[in-house]
């Protein structure tokens, strides 16, 4: 066997993820708020980026001599369009609402502490009360036992129970309870017109009430099932989480739609919401550094930053154009939904949209990920329109969301004395041309929050 060296020449194709490509993919996937934060960070790191406050075209400047021009960067300064990222001038509003001055919502602990400051009769009560309030969660429940609290504060459990009773008299009613039963009983004690058997129902039959065992409860309380259901309706008016009406101390996060769809003269107009993203441009003050051939280090630094700034602006513009094409395609495919409502939402896949807009499926997925659309029907996540479904008699697919709406309308109109079973609902939908099984009906019913047949039955 002969051994030796050889040299072969081959051509291969390889996908290389350049930093610019990774940046473009990242920007495409960002929602409006994240993109705004990303741009603000880039403005701090890249001195060639600047925010254009005035959209009017600047006066022309005198160009340098032809001998001093560098074709690698000269075109950026000559382009007056800011590389395609145009944004309307922001309007100034002189009217202010209450939200302009509202910094944060009042938390439950702050609300209880204020009441404690007025109700505490001694420094000891205030110390114990502040400790107990600090152990009340956002739902209004006490998360520590009196025994553990007594060991931590070195007070007797009886003394802590007295202060806890004081706190349980605060607003909202039911706060400071240690379990659901105690929470409901505290609220019941404040009602003068409460049914006589409501206390017994809460103390002994809450689990059976949740399970819909009306007959068992009626036998135990020696009343008819209809009266049990009326008692259950009253108990459900009580708040199981009295503290949730207050803020948790965390920042409130609002949904900022990335796309706004408006109907004008029967046609849907797509508007990309760029109001949160600063209008970017290239700082022309660094022209001298590029013209100066002697300081090569400064020139190289400015050139690198210039290319990075130009690519960032173009990536943002590419995001806007991609999002515009994808949303336009969604509107075309889901026209019946926008015209008639959710019952007419049709199944749609990423591949279907990708083929129509001539993009890769992964690009469409990134363009719709985490983004929201504000339409005449409401605010929807773009992923909402990519819905699965079941086959109908015509061989077409019916969206699962439209089936859920049909299911909800069907059960809302049922006879409460004889509610429809899942099998009966499946038979009705099959008769309407929608091929669906009982298991699928049960799955969709649970997803829309509709209880089972036994829990819906009314006597």
Topology:
Blueprint: H1 19-29, H2 32-45, E1 49-51, H3 74-78, H4 108-119, H5 123-134, H6 146-153, H7 157-167, H8 180-189, H9 198-204, H10 206-210, H11 214-221, H12 225-235, E2 259-264, E3 267-272, E4 280-282, H13 287-291, H14 296-333, H15 335-340, H16 350-357, H17 361-368, E5 372-375, E6 378-381, E7 389-391, E8 397-399, H18 400-412, H19 422-431, H20 438-447, H21 453-456
Parallel strand pairs: 2-5
Antiparallel strand pairs: 1-4, 2-3, 5-6, 7-8
Which characteristics define this entry?
459 residues, extended, two-stranded antiparallel sheet, 8 strands, single chain, Arc Repressor Mutant, subunit A, alpha+beta, 21 helices
Give a structural overview.
- With 459 residues, this protein is of the alpha+beta class.
- It folds into three domains: 21-54 and 256-379, no CATH class; 108-245, RNA polymerase sigma-54 factor, core-binding domain (Arc Repressor Mutant, subunit A, Orthogonal Bundle); 388-456, Arc Repressor Mutant, subunit A, CATH 1.10.10.
- 47% of the residues lie in helices and 7% in strands.
- The protein is built from 21 helices and eight strands.
- The strands form three sheets. Strands 3-2-5-6 form a four-stranded mixed beta sheet, with helices on one face.
- Helix 5 crosses helix 7 (157-167) and helix 18 (400-412) packs across helix 20 (438-447).
- The protein is extended and about 95 Å long.
- Mean pLDDT is 82; it is low at 55-71 and 76-96.
């Amino acid at each position: 066997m002969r051994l030796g060296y050889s040299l072969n020449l081959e051509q291969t194709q390889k996908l290389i993820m350049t930093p610019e490509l990774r940046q473009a993919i990242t920007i495409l996937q960002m929602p409006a708020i994240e993109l705004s934060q990303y741009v603000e960070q880039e403005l701090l790191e890249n001195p060639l980026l600047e925010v254009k406050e005035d959209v009017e075209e600047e006066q022309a400047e005198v160009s340098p001599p032809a001998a001093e021009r560098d074709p690698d960067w000269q075109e950026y300064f000559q382009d007056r369009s800011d590389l395609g990222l145009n944004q309307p001038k922001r309007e100034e509003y002189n009217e202010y609402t209450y939200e302009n001055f509202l910094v944060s919502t009042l938390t439950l602990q702050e609300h209880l502490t204020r009441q404690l400051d007025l109700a505490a009769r001694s420094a000891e009560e205030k110390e114990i009360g502040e400790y107990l309030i600090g152990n009340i969660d956002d739902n209004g429940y006490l998360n520590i036992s009196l025994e553990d609290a007594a060991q931590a504060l070195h007070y007797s459990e009886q003394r802590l129970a007295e202060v806890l009773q004081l706190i349980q008299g605060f607003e909202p009613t039911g706060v400071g309870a240690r379990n659901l039963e105690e929470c409901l009983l505290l609220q019941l004690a404040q009602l003068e017109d409460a049914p006589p058997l409501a206390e017994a129902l809460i103390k002994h039959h809450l689990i059976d009430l949740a399970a819909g065992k009306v007959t068992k409860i009626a036998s135990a309380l020696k009343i008819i099932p209809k009266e049990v259901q009326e008692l259950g309706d009253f108990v459900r008016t009580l708040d199981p989480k009295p503290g949730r009406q207050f803020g948790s101390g965390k920042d409130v996060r609002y949904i900022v739609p990335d796309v706004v769809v408006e109907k004008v003269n029967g046609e849907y107009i797509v508007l990309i919401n760029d109001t949160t993203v600063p209008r970017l441009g290239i700082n022309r003050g660094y022209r001298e550094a590029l013209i100066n051939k002697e300081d090569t280090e400064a020139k190289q630094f400015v050139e690198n930053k210039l290319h990075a700034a130009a690519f960032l602006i173009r990536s943002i513009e590419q995001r806007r154009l991609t999002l515009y094409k994808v949303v336009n395609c969604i509107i075309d495919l889901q026209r019946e939904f926008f015209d008639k409502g959710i019952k007419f939402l049709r199944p749609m896949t990423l591949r279907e949209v990708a083929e129509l807009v001539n993009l890769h499926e992964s690009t469409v997925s990134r363009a719709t990920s985490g983004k929201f659309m504000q339409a005449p029907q409401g605010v929807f996540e773009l992923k909402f329109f990519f819905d699965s479904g079941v086959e109908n008699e015509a061989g077409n697919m019916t969206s699962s969301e439209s089936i859920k709406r049909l299911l909800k309308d069907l059960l809302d109109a049922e006879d409460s004395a004889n509610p429809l079973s899942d099998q009966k609902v499946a038979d009705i939908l099959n008769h309407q041309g929608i091929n669906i099984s009982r298991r699928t009906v049960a799955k969709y019913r649970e997803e829309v929050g509709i209880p089972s047949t036994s829990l819906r039955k009314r006597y």
